[in-house]
């Protein structure tokens, strides 16, 4: 059965529809892999094996009428995406055992497609972090090397997909939270265009930057998931009215004549040479398939991280104010009065990284500092968007590293907040400009994966996925397993 | 030294939409606690707001009617603070780009008041103290009910001007159909900013803000009290402290509210969940064209069409519900003058006795129209009709049934009246003699005696005539 | 930009967080480091640039004024740390 685990989500879906594999068999195989690997990895906060098996049995009857290529495929969901009646706590103590009374839009859409959910995935608390070490439920470890972090904040998702404990996962990305862990764990992940996937039911970190997207084995799997979850939702006012559902059918692998730009500022100081080499080699593979690659100057790079942290923390400070121990979640056991209840609940309920960002965000919005920081950041954001618009007049896609390094060891990152923030340099620009951006494995260094990032213009998912698909047709990094040689 | 009082108002008006501003829960008043709620209005994690199109329409209509410039590109901002009546710990409001600005309201007597701005926002929940446990109970039914806040310039100098403005505002919003403006239900609430300064000075003094003003009477008295308090402070050489004060209806005084734990720093910023609102000129023209006939236009029409006196038309149009009631009674065939007399008299008296607004009147136009018709047909005399009116007012009872049941129909048979007159003359020879001796008062007494015999059911005119006839006969 | 412990106190109070005394200095230092880095933005001229609150030119996303039945109260109250049959409960807040 281990062979099943090495199939991509689309291959498994095809096998299920062909009747070669039952949904229950696939689900049980994943649950077995989870049982074996979870103790050393800690990918899940809530595993829902029984419900998954029940759902697998129920879905089997409809397999002949299945419309989605993902019908019956087991997957898992990041813990900041609401699942009706199933604990959703953002890896935070403050949400306690909160079980939302409703499903997120994406949860509904995956259910309609016929996917089987195996449970809820570990993450950095409230998606704030790059290592999944800020989780109240303990860190997740990298399947390629358990002394290393899986990245974050969707670390549980990336590790679970890499560990073959599910065929794909839904994560969220505010400043790189899908792409960076995908890169550290050797899987493919895409943050779609802002507004193309409904945020209804995504527990907000920074509302203007958050976007849900898939982590999977291949670009084609990602396309299939996006086909299922993209599209207008009336419950999210920022949701775009875009035609959805045709990404998979547009994957041709033909990228002849495609113009790809490499921003020179993304290959400078701070980038590990092995990562730089792997990304440049990626460019060569794409060139060999007919793309035209050139380096260009993108001077705003040094403003990306400050702009991102001002906006993200400001919104977070407001979004996280509702966790006050009154309506749901955890409340401090002892308090003297209302203010004391608020202060103790929030001080004891939030971890230190979350508190740091709340304080930062409160600061940049507070009287006397708003113009100098928050308003300034919104102005810079406008310039960043403009710079991308200009770049996409020249290029179809941009190619950059995902992270300056490969996965660090556990415990190395949290001690220096600023240094950790700076490592988000390559991923935050796509969030600030709302653009689709994908991370795909493009090499290894010392046994751990390296990722390359493709950024497209707004609603340019098809081009991004097609370039990644073309790359994956000619390489096998995405097929490698942390558990030995790839089967195939 | 003479002092001048300077007043500005912040009025919150609840819009009469069917659903809340950002979710589809009902806005119905009352309801068991937390039964008009959903994940959006209770601030559940992951829930998102979507703007109600009617809220935007109503706010723009109100802005246009108050002579404001409408902000073509408007936006929502978050106002952040912790309080248990605010489940998200921020209120969605408009700070930077309110929907309307720079309006004017004519309050009569040649005075106009400037409208600084009008913006949309969501209401907060209701907190109830539980004395048994000394806890506070949170009911979120009101959370997310749409409000407009209308902020005036500090243009008022007296309580009378403030009341005139509020009456004008209430009338305008009621005629527009954007709010019922019921103070008792809190759908019109008012905060008063007040300062005093030496007469002739152009600088503003330190102001206080007064809250919890639940009636025009309370507003008027609070203004008088606070203005006197501030003048006394200044005359004693003390300072006015900028603070929020609460009006205590029972003590007839304002007192300072406990100052909040920390400085007010609401950290407003654009709400990323709500895209901006952009209005086309076409949209504004459409709303302007659809603006209903307002009080001044109706007053003018009632004078022209029905020949009613200006004073009456002003009273009738002062509340839209009253004016609508009047028109309905006339439409049902009542002569306008009669309808107006009844409304100016019995209807307003009955409402006032019950502390009721016209919008809540149980009596239907059909019932009053029927009562007027019965009087006109001579089947009910005016006095009896008033008795019937009082009896049917609260239940909108059936006039004909009530008259029949209580045998109140006017005596039409002249011989019954004649017989009663004969009896009255026989029983009261002294009065008859007095009258003949020139005591005019005796006439009234005799008429009263006849009416008493007939239990008030006779037509007073017929009785008068019969008594006079008999007196001249003999 | 210098971040003092007083400023840390001020933003802590606003955000209803209460740092233990021994953490304050450390937090002030960390915030100062980050805020100083954020000051990089001052080297960029943004005069006349319209602040961009929303990335895409979406506008007028509205819903019809039609009532949808509200949620079941028991479901809304079920996660509350302190409640009664009908309401959420907190320590005395009403004056």
Question: How would you sum up this structure in a few lines?
Answer:
Chain A is an alpha/beta fold and 488 residues long. Chain A has 16 helices and eleven strands.
Number of helices of chain B: 15
Outline of chain C: flat
Please name the CATH topology of the domain at 5-43 in chain C.
Answer: Histone, subunit A
Query: Which regions of chain B have little confidence, pLDDT < 50, spanning 5+ residues?
Result: none
Number of strands of chain C: 2
Shape of chain B from CA axes?
Answer: elongated
Oligomer: heterotrimer
CATH class descriptor of the domain at 5-43 in chain C: Mainly Alpha
The proportion of residues forming helix of chain C, as a percent range, comes to: 25-40%
Task: Please mark out the parts of chain C with pLDDT under 50 across 5 or more consecutive residues, or reply none.
Answer: none
CATH architecture of the domain at 5-43 in chain C: Orthogonal Bundle
Overview of the molecule:
The complex is a heterotrimer of chains A (488), B (474) and C (95). In chain A, strands 1-3-2-4-6-5-10-11-9-7-8 form an eleven-stranded mixed sheet, with helices on both faces. Chain A has helices at residues 2-6, 9-18, 23-41, 49-60, 105-113, 155-162, 179-185, 219-229, 273-288, 301-319, 338-349, 352-365, 370-394, 417-422, 428-433, 461-474, and strands at residues 44-47, 74-78, 116-121, 168-173, 188-191, 211-216, 259-263, 292-296, 397-401, 437-445, 448-455. Chain A is α/β, with parallel strands linked by helices and 488 residues long. Chain B contains 15 helices and 17 strands. Chain B has helices at residues 53-65, 159-176, 216-235, 281-289, 295-306, 310-317, 320-331, 336-354, 365-376, 382-393, 399-405, 414-427, 429-436, 441-453, 460-473, and strands spanning 3-14, 51-52, 69-70, 73-74, 77-80, 90-93, 100-106, 112-122, 126-130, 135-139, 146-152, 188-198, 208-213, 244-248, 253-256, 269-270, 277-278. Chain B folds into three domains: 9-180 and 187-196 and 260-283, no CATH class; 295-405, no CATH class; 414-473, Arc Repressor Mutant, subunit A (Orthogonal Bundle). In chain B, helix 2 packs antiparallel against helix 3 (216-235) and helix 12 (414-427) crosses helix 14 (441-453). By secondary structure, chain B is of the alpha+beta class. Helices cover 35% and strands 6% of the residues of chain C. Chain C is built from three helices and two strands; from the N terminus they run H-H-E-H-E. In chain C, helix 1 packs across helix 2. Chain C starts with a helix and ends with a strand. The model of chain C has no long low-confidence stretch (mean pLDDT 94). Classes of the chains: A alpha/beta (488), B alpha+beta (474), C mainly alpha (95). Chains in contact: A-B, A-C, B-C. Chains A and C meet through helix 10, helix 11, helix 12, helix 13 and helix 14 of A and helix 1, helix 2 and strand 2 of C.
């Amino acid at each position: 059965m281990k062979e099943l685990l090495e199939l991509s989500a689309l291959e498994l879906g095809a096998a299920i529809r062909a009747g070669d594999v039952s949904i229950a068999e696939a689900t049980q195989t994943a649950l077995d892999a989870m049982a074996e690997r979870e103790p050393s990895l800690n990918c899940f906060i809530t595993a829902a094996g029984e419900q998954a098996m029940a759902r697998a049995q129920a879905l089997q009857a409809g397999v002949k009428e299945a419309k989605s290529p993902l019908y019956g495929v087991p997957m898992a969901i990041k813990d900041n995406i609401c699942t009706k009646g199933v604990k959703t706590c953002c890896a935070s103590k403050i949400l306690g055992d909160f079980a939302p009374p409703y499903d997120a839009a994406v949860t509904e859409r995956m259910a309609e497609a016929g996917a089987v959910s195996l449970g809820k995935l570990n993450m950095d608390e409230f998606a704030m972090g790059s290592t999944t070490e800020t989780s109240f439920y303990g860190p997740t470890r990298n399947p390629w090397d358990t002394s290393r972090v899986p990245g974050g904040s969707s670390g549980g998702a990336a590790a679970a997909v890499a560990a073959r404990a599910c065929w794909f996962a839904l994560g969220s990305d505010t400043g790189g939270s899908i792409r960076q862990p995908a890169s550290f764990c050797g899987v493919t992940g895409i943050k779609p265009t802002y507004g193309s996937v409904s945020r209804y039911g995504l527990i907000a970190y920074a509302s203007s930057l958050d976007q849900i997207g898939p982590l999977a084995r291949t670009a084609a799997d990602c396309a299939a998931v996006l086909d299922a979850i993209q599209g207008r939702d009336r419950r999210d006012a920022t949701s775009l009215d875009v035609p959805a559902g045709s990404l998979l059918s547009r994957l041709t692998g033909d990228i002849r004549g495609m113009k790809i730009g490499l921003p020179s500022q993304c290959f400078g100081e701070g980038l590990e040479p092995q990562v730089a080499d792997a990304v440049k080699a990626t460019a060569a593979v794409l060139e060999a398939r007919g793309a035209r690659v050139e380096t260009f100057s993108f001077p705003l790079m040094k403003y990306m991280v400050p702009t991102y942290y001002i906006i993200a923390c400001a919104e977070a400070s407001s979004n996280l104010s509702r966790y006050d121990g009154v309506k749901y979640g955890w409340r401090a056991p002892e308090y003297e009065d209302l203010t004391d209840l608020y202060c103790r609940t929030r001080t004891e309920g939030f971890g230190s990284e979350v508190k740091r960002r709340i304080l930062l965000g409160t600061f940049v919005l507070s009287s006397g500092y708003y113009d100098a920081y928050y308003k300034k950041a919104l102005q810079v954001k406008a310039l960043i968007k403009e710079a991308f618009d200009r770049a996409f007049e020249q290029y179809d896609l941009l190619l950059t590293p995902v992270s300056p390094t490969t996965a660090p060891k556990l415990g190395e990152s949290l001690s220096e907040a600023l240094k950790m923030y700076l490592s988000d340099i390559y991923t935050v620009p796509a969030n600030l400009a709302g653009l689709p951006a994908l991370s795909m494995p493009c090499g290894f260094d010392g046994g751990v994966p390296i990722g390359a990032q493709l950024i497209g213009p707004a609603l340019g998912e098809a081009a991004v996925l097609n370039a990644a698909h073309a790359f994956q047709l000619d390489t096998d990094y995405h097929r490698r397993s942390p558990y030995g040689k790839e089967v195939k | 030294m003479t002092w001048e009082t300077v007043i500005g108002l912040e009025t919150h008006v609840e819009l009469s939409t069917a659903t809340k501003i950002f979710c589809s829960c009902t806005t119905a008043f009352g309801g068991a606690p937390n039964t008009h709620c959903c994940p959006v209005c209770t601030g559940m994690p992951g829930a998102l707001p979507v703007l109600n199109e009617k809220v935007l329409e109503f706010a723009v209509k109100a802005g246009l009617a108050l002579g404001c410039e409408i902000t073509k590109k408007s936006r929502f901002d978050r106002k952040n603070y912790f309080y248990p009546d605010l489940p998200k710990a921020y209120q969605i409001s408009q700070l930077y780009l309110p929907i309307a600005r720079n309006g004017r309201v004519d309050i009569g007597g040649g005075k106009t008041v400037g409208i600084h701005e009008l913006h949309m926002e969501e209401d907060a929940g209701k907190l109830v103290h539980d004395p048994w446990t000394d806890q506070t109970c949170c009911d979120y039914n009101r959370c997310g009910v749409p409000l407009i806040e209308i902020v005036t310039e500090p243009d008022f100098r007296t309580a009378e001007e403030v009341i005139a403005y509020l009456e004008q505002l209430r009338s305008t919003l009621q005629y527009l159909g954007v709010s019922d403006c019921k103070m008792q239900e809190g759908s019109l609430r008012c905060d008063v900013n007040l300062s005093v300064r030496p007469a002739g000075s152009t600088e503003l003094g330190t102001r206080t803000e007064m809250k919890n003003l639940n009636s025009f009477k309370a507003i008027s008295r609070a203004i008088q009290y606070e203005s006197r308090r501030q003048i006394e402070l200044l005359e004693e050489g003390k300072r006015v402290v900028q603070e929020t004060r609460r009006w205590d209806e029972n003590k007839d005084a304002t007192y300072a509210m406990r100052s909040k734990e920390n400085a007010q720093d609401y950290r407003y910023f654009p709400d990323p969940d709500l895209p901006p609102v952009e209005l086309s000129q076409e949209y504004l023209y459409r709303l302007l064209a659809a603006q209903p006939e307002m009080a001044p236009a109706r007053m003018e029409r009632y004078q022209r069409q029905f020949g009613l006196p200006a004073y009456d038309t002003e009273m009738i149009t002062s509340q839209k519900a009253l004016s609508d009631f009047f028109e309905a009674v006339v439409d049902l065939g009542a002569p306008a003058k009669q309808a107006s007399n009844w409304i100016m008299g019995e209807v307003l008296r009955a409402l006032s006795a019950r502390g009721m607004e016209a919008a809540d009147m149980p009596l239907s136009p059909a019932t009053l129209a029927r009562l007027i018709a019965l009087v006109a047909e001579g089947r009910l005399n005016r006095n009896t009709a008033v008795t019937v009116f009082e009896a049917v007012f609260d239940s909108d009872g059936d006039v004909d049934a009530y008259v029949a049941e209580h045998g109140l129909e006017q005596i039409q048979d002249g011989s019954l009246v004649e017989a009663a007159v004969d009896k009255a003359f026989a029983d009261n020879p002294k009065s008859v003699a007095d009258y003949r001796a020139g005591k005019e008062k005796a006439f009234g007494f005799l008429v009263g005696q006849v009416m008493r015999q007939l239990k008030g059911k006779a037509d007073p005119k017929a009785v008068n005539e019969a008594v006079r006839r008999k007196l001249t006969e003999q | 930009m210098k971040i003092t412990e007083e400023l840390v106190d001020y933003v802590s109070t606003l955000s209803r967080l209460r740092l233990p005394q021994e953490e304050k200095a450390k937090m002030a230092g960390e915030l100062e480091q980050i805020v100083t880095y954020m000051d990089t933005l001052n080297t960029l001229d943004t005069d006349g640039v319209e602040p961009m609150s929303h990335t895409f030119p979406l506008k007028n996303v509205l819903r019809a004024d039609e009532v949808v039945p509200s949620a079941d109260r028991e479901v809304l109250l079920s996660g509350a740390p302190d409640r009664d049959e009908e309401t959420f409960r907190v320590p005395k807040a009403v004056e």
